[in-house]
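Internal tracking record. Fields below are filled automatically when a chain is submitted to the structure queue. Please do not edit lines marked as system-generated. If the sequence contains nonstandard residues, flag them in the REMARKS field before resubmitting.
Queue: standard
Priority: normal
Entity type: single polypeptide chain
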Amino acid sequence: MTETFVFPSKTKNIAFALISIGLLGTVLGLTMGHDHNRVWANLLLNSYYFIGLALAGVFLAAAHQLGYGGWHVQIKRVFESTGSLIPVIGIIVALILLGGKMHWHHVYHWMDASLYDPTSPNYDEIMVGKSGFLNFGFFAARIIFYLSIWTFFAWLLRKISIKEDENGGLKYYTRNKFYAALFLIVYAVTSSTASWDFIMSVDPHWYSTLFGWYNFASCSVAGVAAITLVVLYLKKNGYLHQVNEEHYHNLGMFMFGFSVFWAYLWFSQYMLIWYANIPEETVYFYTRLHGKPLFKFLFYLNLFMNFIFPFLFLMTRTAKRNPAKLAFAAVVILCGHWVDYYLMVMPGSTGENAGIGLTEISITLGFVGLYVFVVLNTLTKASLVPVNNPFGKESMVHHTLK
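SYSTEM-GENERATED OUTPUT FOLLOWS
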């Protein structure tokens, strides 16, 4: 039996209002603000952050497909729908790349041509050594490749899943499993390399061998939190009738588990850099702990919101099965990992001019509205719950150990 989602006008209007706030904040920041770099840095921060939320849904759908995860079938369409956000944000990423090429901003310091001119006072020997990798043409080609391959797999996996609804049988389930395996291989590589390009190259002198895994953990836990809010919203509005507290429990366990995984990688990266005490590595943490006071405050807030809070709050079984508590935890985690990405982007792109004000708030709200509109609108285009999935019944009667 199919279940069709109808996008409520009230929610749609709220999404449009948030998008309008984001557009207004961007335009005002670029036309009336004194620091255009801050606007572009916020566009980069939120583009990468929300692409991570989108990819997390596709990743979870593929991982469950390959791992015979039956419990998720009732909310599988929510996982799949997030991928439709990737090409939309890709347009914003294209503008950021064009802005760097046209010297409208200096978010990516290595795009400054004077760094490679031996006669210039800005000549940077380190950047000359990295120019084979960090040059605009190759950089833009990699970004286009990432966005294209991610968009393709997100579209393909969802298309095959919908075909399964229409035709039944195991043919489409098996096909989806095959492409899910391919996507996981591609994602394992590109999620790391994309983090080097999008984020680590903002601080082009710095590098970390754990940075890719660290970003994967961050976008995964934030993605689960966003999906949890969508599921709770749908349930509250009378959809997903078979979803129960057992499904909530699993989503809570994912948030808890990925939070611990994130903390493990955060500590591993920090500990290795602290222990080695190599200047080109320690400069990253020195800037965040001894630079602008805002960075130091956010550094410790980051640890609290992304590890201490979810670890203690979601440890109990009750918290993971209570919709209100689960929603609260999801909101805190989403805000916490926005702070995490803020610390990755802002110190290297805006430095002492960084702050959290109307520019940051308005642009972030715009991306929130974009996420809500694109994901919920995508959910209207197919049955909200897969009808011919072989694990459909298992998901309906899903229960955890008592």
